[in-house]
Automatic annotation (TrEMBL):
<protein>
    <recommendedName>
        <fullName>Transposase Tc1-like domain-containing protein</fullName>
    </recommendedName>
</protein>
<feature type="domain" description="Transposase Tc1-like">
    <location>
        <begin position="16"/>
        <end position="82"/>
    </location>
</feature>
<feature type="region of interest" description="Disordered">
    <location>
        <begin position="1"/>
        <end position="29"/>
    </location>
</feature>
<dbReference type="InterPro" id="IPR052338">
    <property type="entry name" value="Transposase_5"/>
</dbReference>
<dbReference type="InterPro" id="IPR002492">
    <property type="entry name" value="Transposase_Tc1-like"/>
</dbReference>
<dbReference type="InterPro" id="IPR036397">
    <property type="entry name" value="RNaseH_sf"/>
</dbReference>
<dbReference type="Pfam" id="PF01498">
    <property type="entry name" value="HTH_Tnp_Tc3_2"/>
</dbReference>
<feature type="compositionally biased region" description="Basic and acidic residues">
    <location>
        <begin position="16"/>
        <end position="29"/>
    </location>
</feature>
């Protein structure tokens, strides 16, 4: 008694709607078909989406970036795209991250193809800092992960300088990075403080 998508419209149109609006749920699609005066099962909807390479996936969280920062990151990636792979073995990366202790526990879902996980339509922007969390500093290179430091107070330039002094060089030595290694961090004002430089 359930009709197939071809009974109420082209399957291509059905998949196109989900591609244009990836947060459309199967329930939304059932309601759309019902409003058109037809019925369709969830199984038929799932099968149709799968035939078009779309499946229900968790929304990826990405940093909330201004367009200028997006362009700067893209330029950095393009500038270093053709460099020798061995050069990356001499780079030590570091950053701070926030681990949420409380907040929204539910997961948003989108219908997408595997390769489209970071398309802006399929992501949720996140802010770097907020309440109810633990802040951590860490570093890593192609050779492995370095020390992890729990940040207990609001971080300023002096604290950042101290974190580097206690964690960065010991991590470089532990990974046997040798001479000529490069330290890479973002342009956070605390990272640009005179004492840090």
């Amino acid at each position: 008694d359930c009709q197939s998508p071809s009974d109420w419209g082209s399957m291509q149109d059905f998949a196109s709607k989900v591609r244009d609006q990836p947060r459309t749920t199967r329930e939304d699609l059932v309601s759309d078909v019902k409003r058109a005066g037809n019925t369709v099962s969830m199984v038929t909807i799932s099968n149709t989406l799968h035939r078009h390479g779309l499946k229900s996936c968790s929304v990826r969280k990405v940093p909330l970036l201004k367009p200028a920062r997006v362009q700067a990151r893209l330029k950095f990636a393009k500038d270093h795209l053709d460099g020798p792979e061995e050069a990356w073995e001499k780079v030590m990366w570091s950053d701070e991250t926030k681990i949420e202790l409380f907040g929204m526990s539910f997961t948003h879902r989108v219908q997408r193809k595997k390769k489209d996980e970071y398309n802006p339509k399929n992501t949720i922007p996140t802010l770097k800092h907020g309440g109810g969390n633990n802040m951590l500093w860490g570093c890593f290179s192609a050779k492995g992960t370095g020390r992890l430091h729990h940040i207990e107070e609001r971080m300023d330039g002096a604290m950042y300088h101290k974190i580097l002094g206690n964690n960065l060089l010991p991590s470089v030595r532990a990974m046997k990075m040798g001479r000529g290694w490069v330290f890479q961090h973002d342009n956070n004002p605390k990272h640009r403080a005179r004492a840090t430089k």
